[in-house]
Amino acid sequence: MKILFIGDVVGQYAAKKLAEFLPGFKRKNNIDITVINGENSANGNGITPFSANILLPVSDVITTGNHCFKRVEMNSMYDENDRIIRPHNLGEGVRGKGYSILDFGKHKFVVINLMGSAFMQPCDNPFKAIIELLSKLDTPNIIVDFHAEATGEKKAMLYMLASKVSAVLGTHTHVQTADEQIFDDHTAYITDVGMTGSHDSIIGAEKEGLVNRFLNYVPTRHIEASGNIQINAVMLEVIPETGKASSISRIMNLI
Ligand SMILES: [Fe+2]
Ligand SMILES: [Fe+2]
User: Fold this and answer.
1) Residue 196: in which H helix or E strand, if any?
2) How far is CA 144 from the centre of its chain?
3) How high is the pLDDT of residue 247?
4) Nearest bound ligand to CA 36?
5) Which end of the chain is more exposed for a tag (fewer CB within 10 A), N or C?
């Protein structure tokens, strides 16, 4: 099975460009499953039903992260739609689901969203949370979106989950790393998939305001930059009988 995983989409313009780009790309590369991190796909931060509805027709699962509950209009969508997930380790009683099951009859794939604990908002221990969750799942085909800031925390997650899941894919920093690998001859890994958003920007946002904030301490809003869109993603191949990832390749496309 070929899986395409798209890094954090920043802003509605990028979401629309991605939605136009994906059908042809998926056909050409025989993609079976598409996962998109959509936590920043709305204009002005977070995800909204409007931006989610741009991405839903071209994806199987939308993952999120620390911005999952930024927008109040999104509340009911987490309850109603199994294909949009938020970090699993947000604690008991929180709306929405932390994982999504894709049932292909003969094989099941599970996409799990987890959030890191270092330099992020408070959450349950992601390591303990995923050990507990894995004990309940009955498929070897497991893709983890580990939405985390610290590179060390992401590598620790890889080493703990090596041979137990098909992929540990880092998101959140919006900067793609060049360390994609198959670890233990089983688990695909990259520290950060990167972002899908304006190339000429500061992690997807308009530059001038952010520079002014660093220079002069002027509070500023993140305004989605425009212009060329970069698509950051990884493509994986997973053998569904064993859950083994046999390849991972990094994508950095300008459209
Ligand atoms: Fe993000
Ligand atoms: Fe994030």
Assistant:
1) strand 195-198
2) 9
3) 98
4) 1
5) C
pLDDT tens, residue by residue, 39-59 = 999 998 899 999 999 999 999
Q: For residue 233, what are the β-bridge partners? A: 6, 251
- Pull the structure tokens for residue 178: 């060049």
Answer yes or no: is pLDDT of 132 > 90: yes
Q: Which residues contact 193 (CB under 8 A, 6 or more apart)?
A: 5, 6, 7, 8, 37, 169, 170, 171, 176, 232, 233, 234
CB of 136 closer than 8 Å to CB of 166 = no
- Residue 156 carries which side chain, given as an amino acid letter? A
Instruction: Report the number of distinct structural domains present in the chain.
Output: 1
Mark the residues whose beta carbon lies below 5 A from ion ligand 2: 65-66, 172
Q: Is the pLDDT of residue 142 over 90?
A: yes
Task: Indicate which residues carry an active-site annotation.
Answer: 67
* Residue 76 counted as domain residue: yes
The span from the CA of 22 to the CA of 18, in Å, is: 6
pTM for the full model?
A: 0.97
Distance between CA 128 and CA 120 in Å, rounded? 17
Residue 101 lies in a domain: yes
Residue tagged 């309940």 (tokens): 136
Q: How far is the CA of 106 from the centre of ligand 1 (A)?
A: 34
Ligand nearest to the CA of residue 6, numbered in listed order: 1
Is residue 240, in this structure, part of any structural domain at all? Answer: yes
CATH number of residue 22's parent domain = 3.60.21.10
| Domain ranges, residue 250 | 2-198+226-254
Tell how far the Cα of 39 is from the centroid of ligand 1, in angstroms: 6
What average pLDDT is seen over the chain?
Answer: 96
Which pLDDT does position 221 carry in this prediction?
Answer: 81
